[in-house]
## 1
Amino acid sequence: MRQLQGMDSSFVALESPNSPMHIGNLLIYNPATAPGGFVRFKDILKFFEDRMQLSKTMRQRLVRVPFDLDYPYWIEDPNFDLEYHVRHVALPKPGDWRQLCIQTARIHARPMDLTRPPWEFTVVEGLDNVRDFPKGCFGFVTKVHHSAIDGMSGIDLMEAIHTLSPSTAPPNEPDDWKPEKIPGAVELLGKSYVNALLNPLKQAQVAAQAVPGVANAIKGLVTRDFKLSSDYVPPRTRFNRSISSHRVVEGRSFSLTELKSIRALLPEAKVNDVALAIIGGALHKYLTAKDDLPKGTMTAMAPISVRSNDEKGDMGNQVAAMIAPLGTHIADHAKRLEYVFGQTSNSKAMTNALGARTMTEVSKVNPLLYMALGSQLFSRVSLAHRVAMPFNTVVTNVPGPPVHIYSAGARMESMALSLICLTDGLGLAHIVQSYVDEAIISFTACRDIMPDPEFYADCLQESFDEMLAAAKAVDAEPTKKTPRKRVTKTAKKRTTGRTVKETK
C-alpha cells in the first residue's frame, strides 16, 4: 500500500461527472505484420495478460480515506479483471475519420470507475475509410487516470503493452504479483491522524527548501535575468467558463521534419516554440472568424517534467508548469514565433530560478480535504464564470517513440490523437505528440464551447501551412543575408538555479 502525493491527489479531488480526470490516446494499428495478417480480440487480451508484470499501473486501484481527510492510497486490486478494462466496439459504415473522432470523444467523456484500477482500453474496428490508413486497421482508445501517470510515466505504460518487433516473446520472469487486502475505514483514519501530526513538519521542510528559490527569483528580477510582464495575465475568452460533460476531439498530423524546418524563421527557437506559435496562429484565425479575438495575447500552461532518471518507472506526476504567451494578437508568423520564443525563454528563466522541483514539492503538503472542498465549491457556484483563470488553455508536449512499435504483433501506424482532461474554466487543451516522422497537434474541448472542432482543426492546418511557406521563403533566399533577430537578454544569459527538462 502506497500513498499518493499531493499533485496526484489533486486529480482525484477534481474528479466530477463533468470533469473526469483521465488522459489518453487514439492509436491506429495495422495487423498486416501480425501472424496470419490479422489480430483477434482474444489475441489482444492474451498479449496484455502476458505483460501485466511490466506495468505498475495496470493492477493497482485507489482507496480513498473517509471524508477525504488524507491522500488516497494505491493497493494491488484483489478483484482485478482484465476483461473489464479492455473493451471492444466497431464503427458503423463507412467508418471514416469524423465517425472515429465522435466515438473517441464519447468514450473519453465517460468517467471511470475509481473502485477499479483507473485505466480502460477500447479496441475500435471498422476503420476502413479513416484517412490514408490501410483497410483492416483497428484502433485503441486509451484512458488512464491522471493521478496514475503524467506524460513521461505514461510512456512506461506504453512500453509495457508494446514491443519493438512484431514477434517479441513474453517476459521470461515469473509474475510474482500478489493482491492486497482492502484496508478498512478505521485503519485509514488512523493513518490520516498520524499524517496530520507529521504534516506541519513536512510543510516547514518544504518552506525551508523554497527559500533559495525565492532568493534566486528576487535576484533574477534585480539583475534582469527575467522580467514580469502584463503579457502573462490572460484575457477572458470563450474557453474560460464552466464546462459540460460533453467532449469533442480533433487534431492534425504534420511532418516532423517540416515542423522542425519552420525554425528557419528563427534558428534559436525550439520545436516547442514552433508548436506554441502554430497554436497561437490557429487561435488567432478561429477567434477572428468568431469576431471574438482578445486584444492581448492568450496564454497557455505548459507542463515541465521534473522526473529524474531513477523515477522513470514510478507512477504519478512529477511536473511543474510555466506560463507561455501564445502571441494570438500577432498575425505575422515570424513576429509571432519571435515573440513566443522571447516569452518562453523568460518563463523558463523564472521557473529555473524558483526551482521547478521545489514547486512540485509544495503540492505534496496541501491537505486533500481543502482541495476537495475547494474544487466542489468552484464547480457548484460556477466560479469559472466569475474568477479569472491563470491561463487560457494548456499545451503539453509529449515525445513519442522515434521508431515503429507493435502491440499483439500489429504495427502502430499513428498516434492519431492525444486526449486530455478539462475542468471548469478550462474548456480547451492541446497535446503535441511525436511518433517516428510525424508530429500530431491534438485538442480536446467542451462540445458546448467548441461545437465546430473541424473548423479549429482546419485553423491548425492553415497556421502550420502558412508558417512552413514563410520558412521556405527564407530558405529560398541563400544570397540574401537575413538580419538576425534581436534575442532577449534572458535567452542570452545562462540562468542560475536548477535546470528543468521540458516534456519534449
Note: Confidence is low (pLDDT under 50) at residues 485-504.
## 2
Amino acid sequence: MLLPTDPGPEALRVRPLTQATLYSHGARIAVPSYDRGALTPAVVHLSVGGFSRAHQLIYFDELAERRISTGWGVVGVGLRQRHLQDALAPQDHLYTVVERSPDGERARVVGVMVDYLYAPDAPAAVLDRLSDPRTRLVTLTITPGGYLLDPQTRAFTADHPDVHRDLAEPHAPATVFGYLLEALDRRRQAGLAPFTVVSCDNLHRNGEATRASVVGLARLRDEVLARWITDRVAFPSSMVDRITPQTPPEERAALAARYGVDDRWPVVTEPFSQWFVEDTFSNGRPPLDQVGVRFVPDVGDYELMKTRLLNASHSAMGHLGSLAGYDRMDELMGDPVFATYVERLMDDEVTPLLPQPDGVDLTDYKRTLLQRFANPAIADRLSRLCRRGSAKLPQHLLPSLRQSLVEGRPAPLLLLAVAGWCRYLRGTDDDGRPLPLEDPRADELHALALAGGGDPRPLLDVRAVFGDLGDDPVVVAALTGAIETIDRLGARAAVAAALGVPALPPSR
C-alpha cells in the first residue's frame, strides 16, 4: 500500500510494537503473516545497524513471508553499542522499515529476527549461537575500518592490541574475527560443518578481506585450524546497495502518528535495493535468488560499479556540498552546478575506467543513481556521507584517480573531490561555520590540514590513506591548485569553474 507522506488529521491509538500487539497493527501497516516461532535461527548477523535491518534482513524476511523457506531466521549481534538491544528486546525483536519515495511511502514490520545479543555482555552466548549446528550463515556489516588489514598492502595486522586479546582470551573475544575463529574451532572439534561468512561492507573484495583476517588470526593460534578454515570455509564477496540514512528521533513520533505503531527504533530507507553474492557456500545456500538476490561467479565488476559510482559520488558531493553550506543530498542535487558535477564525474571520469558488469546497463544504473540522490523523501544528510573519509577515499575515490593517472586520462573532477576532502578536514565551511569531523583519524588529519593550509603535502604524507600519491609531483601540483581554487572562490564556484559553467546563484 503506497501512502502519501502527510499523516492527515485522524488521531490513531498508539500501541507498542510487540508480538502480542502485532496483528492489531495489521490494518494500517504490513505485518508478518508467517509463524515467527517456526523460524530456524540459521543466520547470525554481526554488528546490526540501520543498514542491515533495511537490507539483508528484508531479504530473509521475504523468504518467510512468501513461504519460500522458514529455515533462515536471523539472530542479531551488537558489538559496540547497547542501545539497539535496549530498543529491540522490549518489542520481541520486531521493528519497522519505512520505504520512502517522492510518491509516498510503504511501511512494514520485519519479524525475521528471532533474537538479539550484545556481545560485550554475553560473549559466551554469542559463541554458543555461532557454534550451534543450526547456524549455517554469518553476515557482517562492521564498516571497512573494522578489518584487521593494512589499508595499503591488505596484509593481516598481527600487532593490533585486540589481536593479542583474542589470542589471550579466546572465550571473550575483542574482535569479530576472534568470535568467528573461536566458533569455527569449536565446530571443527565437534565435527560440524563450518558456516559461510558473507561480508556486506563496502570494501574491495570483502570476502577475501574477511578470509585474510580470519586466517591471519588463526595462524597465530593454530596452524592446523588455519588450514582447516582455508580448505573448508567459504568467504564469498558480496555487493550491497541501499541508501539508508541514520534514523533521527523524530521518526519514531512520525511513525506513531501515521500508523499507530510505537517502535523504539524504526528504519527509514529508499525503495531501491540490490545484493550480489558470489556463488560459493560452505553449508547450504539460502534461496535468496528467489527474492531478488543475484548469485554470480565473481562479484568484482558489480562492486566496482557501485563503489566507484555511488560511494565515490557520495564522498565527492558530501565534502564539496558541505563546504558550500548544504546539509542534504536532495537539496544539493537541486543545485544545477552540483547536479552537473556528479553527472559528469560519473560519465566522463569514472565510467570509462569500469568494466561492463554482466546483466547491468551502466547508463540506466547512473540514471537511477541521480534519481536516488535527488529523492527528497530520504533527505540523506551530507554529514553521514562525510563520516570515516580516511577509510572511504582509499576505497572509493582514489582508485579511479590512480587508474586515470596510469592511463594518462585527465581527472580534474576527481582531483577536485580529493581537494574538497582536504579542505573539509580544516573543520569549517566556506563561511567559517563548523563542520563535524567523524573519523577515526580526525585529530591527526585535522591538525595536518590546518598546518598545511593550501599545501596538501602534510596530508599526502599519510600513506595509510594516500599511499604513494604524494610522491607524484603532478598530483601534488594539481591538488594544490584545486585547494587554492576552493579557498579563493568557495566550493560551489570552484566546481563551476572545473565544469566551465557559470556559477549563478542557486535558487534555494
Note: The mean pLDDT is 95.
## 3
Amino acid sequence: MAVQKLYAGAKLRELRARLGLTQKAFAEKLGVSLPYLNQMENNNRPVSTSVVLSLAQEFGYDVTELQSGDEARLVGDMREALADPVFTAAPPSLADLRLAAANAPALARAFLDLHAAYRQTHERLASLDEALGREDARLQPSPWEEVRDFFHYCDNYIDAVDRAAERFATQSAAGATIRDAAISELRTRKVSISFTDSPVVRHYDPDTRQLQLSRRATEATRTFQLLLQLALLTQDQLLEATLDLARFQSPEARAIAKVGLANYYAGAVLMPYGRFLSAARETRHDLERLADRFGASLEQVAHRLSTLQRPGAKGIPFFFVRVDPAGTITKRHSATHLQFARYGGACPLWNVHRAFETPGRFLRQLAETPDGMRYFCLARDVTKSGGAFDAPTRRYAIGLGCEVKHAPALVYADHMDIDTPEAFEPIGISCRICERKDCHQRAVPPLERRLRVDPDHRGVLPYSVD
C-alpha cells in the first residue's frame, strides 16, 4: 500500500496562531522558506519529514496531533450527506472533499449542520401529525445526535474529566479497591448505600441522600454505577464547565451529555489512563485479561481502549461499535480512518453482525474498505441479563478494530496472514454510499451512481451500477 502524504495546513495555522508567530518567524524556526510554509499551510504541499522533526524539537509539539481523526470524520460525513437524493448534480470528488475538510473544517461542519436541519424538516413534513401545531419545531438536531457528535468530534477523549478520574483512582487509600474507595467517598459525603431486588439499576434520592443499587446487576455494573453517582456528586463543577464549552442547543442535549460525561468519568476511574494503557500494552490488548484485572466488563474495556487518545501518551487508534440484533448502531466511535454511517446500519459483510451466531466467541476478520485502507476487526456478542427469570435479556455485539499496521500489538491477530492482500475481505460503510459495484450483499443501490436495468438479464442483483 502507498504511504499517504500528510497534509495538515489547518493544524499548522492553529499552532502558529497559538504561538503568536508571523509566517516569516514560524518559517525561520522550522527551517523552511516562507513560500514553502505558505504552501503547507494551504495544503498545496504535504508536511515534510524535516518539518515534523522541527515541530517536535523546536516546540515540543506532539506530532501525532497532525493526523487527527477530524478530517476523516468530516470527509465520511460529507460523503454520506452528499449521497442524499436532494443533491441532483454529480457529487464532488473525494479529493475536493478532503480539501474542504482540511482547509475549511468550520465550513464543512456548517454544511453538515445544514443538511441535518434539512433532514429533520423533511422527516417532520412526512409526519404531519408530529409537526402541525408544535411550537418547538425548530431546525436543530435531535438531542441524542447532538451529544453523539460532541463525543465523536472530541475523539471520544475528554482530557479534564479523564485526568480528574485518574487523580481519584491514584489517590485512593493503599490496598483499597476502586469500589471500596468509591463507597468510602460517598459515605464521607453522607450518602447511604443499600442494595435492593429491584429491576432499576440505580436510584438516588437527593433529599434523603440514599443511593439504591440493584442486586440483579452484575458486580461490574454495580461498581460502575457507584462511580457514576460519585461523578455526579463530586465533579459537578467540572462537568458543568465542560458542558458550557460544548454549547448544546437544547436542555435535553445538555442533560444527556452530562450523563455521558459522568459515564466517561466512571470508566476512567475504573480503568485509569496510565495504568490501563500500560496494562493494555503488557497483555497485548487481551480484553478478557484486562476485564479481570480492572473488574470491568468486556464492553467497558473495549470502549475504554477506544478513548486512549491523550496527547503525548496515545494508545492504538481503535474504532469501537455496538450493534443490536437488528443491525442498528447503538454506540460508535472511531479514532481511525474508518467512519461509521450516520444514518442506517453498518455494512452486512462486517464480522460484528456474525457475532450473534457464535455466542461466547471472539471473531477475527481482516477487512479492506473501498479507499484501500486495511483493518483488523474483532467482534464478540454481549448478553446483558435482567437478573431474573421474567426480566428481559438485552443482546448486543461489540466490534473493536484498528488499522492492520497495528495488528501485531494485538494478541488476537496472532497467526493471521496480514501480509497477503487476498486475505482481506471487502467491506464498506453503508450501501447508500458504498462504491463497490459487484457486492452480493448490497441492500439498496448507491445513491450517487447511475443504474442500468436489463429485463433480459439477472445477476446477483436485479440491476448493474455504472
Note: The first helix runs from residue 9 to 19.
## 4
Amino acid sequence: MVFSSLIFLCVFLPVTFGLYYLIPSITAKNILLIIVSFLFYAYGEPVYVILMFISCVFNYAVGRAIMWRRRRLFVAIAVIVNLVFLGVFKYTGFVMETVNGLFGLNLDVVEIALPVGISFYTFQALSYVIDVYRDPKIGQRNLLNVLLYISFFPQLIAGPIVRFDDIVHQIRHRVHSVDKISGGICRFVRGLGKKVLLANTMAVIADNIFNAPGGQVNVIAAWIGALAYAFQIYYDFCGYSDMALGMAQMFGFRFLENFNAPYVADGIQDFWHRWHISLSTWFKEYLYIPLGGNRKGKARTILNRYIVFFCTGLWHGANWTFILWGLLHGTCLVLENTRISLKRIPVKGVRQIITFILVVCAFVIFRADDIGHAFAYLGTMFTGGTFSSASMDLMWAQLTPVHIFMLILSFLCIRPWNISWPKALRPVVTKGVYVWTLILLLLCMINLASNAYNPFIYFRF
C-alpha cells in the first residue's frame, strides 16, 4: 500500500496530468482518462479489471436498448443482473454461513475474493441505466462516455458515488482553468492529510483497543477506542472523498460534496444529510422514492425507511454487524418523527452531543467482529469493565503525546472553520495556502515512507 501510494503520488498522477493538458481534443482527453483508469485499476486488480469492463459494456448495451424499446423490461434486466453480479462476489459466503447457522447444516463456505470498489462502480452503473430509463435523451451512443463515467479513476475504488445525471454534460463539455487546477491540488493534499495523518493515527488506537481481550479493556479505554474509530472512519472516507474531488477538479470535473461536517449534526436525519451524501442520495433517488417514500401513509413510510437502512447496512459489508448498524440508524430516524424526537430538545448543542454519542455507539457495532463482540464492547463503555493493571496499561499505552495531540486535532477538525479575514490580509492568506499545502504534502510523504500501516477502510466496499 505504501509503495503504491508513493508510485501514484510521484509518477502516476503527474504524468497523467501532464499528458492530459497537452491534448487539445476533449474526446482524446476522455480516451486518455479511460486508459489511465483501467491501468490504475489493473495495477491492484489485474484479473478483475475484466469484470469491470464487462460491467461497463453490459450497462452501455442495456442503455442503448432502453432508448429504443421495452424500457421497463430492459431496466429490470439491468437491475437484476447488476445486483446478482454484486451479490455473487460480495455476499455468497455470508449467505452460506447464514444458511448453515439457521438450519444446522455444514455446507462448504465458498470464499470469493472481493473486487476492489465493486459496490461503488456497480451502483454507478445502475445509476446510468435508471437515469436513461427516466430520460432516454441522456442515453449515450458513444461507449467511451459510459466507460469514462463508470471507470473514472479518482472515485473508482472508494467513491463518492457519482450519479450519471449529474456528470453527463461534463463528460462532453468541461472548462479548465488555473484556479481549478490549483484548487484541486490543495483539495487533494488536504484530503491526503486527513487520511495519512489523522485517520491512520486513529486507526492505531482503535485497533489496539478493539483487538484487545475483553478483560483488558476498561470504560476509559473503551470510550477512547470508540472515539478513535469514529474519527478514523470519518477522516479515512472524508479524506479519500476530498482526494477524489480534488483530482476530478484538476481534470475539469466538478463532483458534488460527499461530507458536510456530519459530527455536528443535531439529529440522525441531519447526520445522513451530512454523512456519505452520495450514498444516502442514491438510496433516496433509486430506492426510497420508488418504494413510495412518505407518500403512502405512516406505516408504509416507516417500512420504506427500514428497507432503505437495511440495504444501507448490507451495502457496507457481508456481516450482521453492518445490518444491525443500518437498522439502528433506521430506528433512530423513525423515532425522530415521534414524541421522543431529539427535535423536542430546545438546546441545539445538547441535540448535537446526543447525536454524536449515538453515532459513536453505532460505529462500535460497525467496527466489531461480530454482534457478540459489539454488545460486549458497548457493555464495557457503559458499565465500566475492569480496572486491572493490564487494563490500565492498555489505556495508558494509547495516551502518548502524539496520540493525545491527534485526538484533540481530530475533534477540532470535525467542523469547518470559516474565518473572515480582513480585506488587506486576504492576498497574504491566499498565497499562504499554497505554502501550507506544500508543507502538508511533505509531512504526508514522510509519513507514507516511514509508516507501513496505511489501511483504507472503504476499499473493501
Note: Residues 71-103 form the longest helix (33 residues).
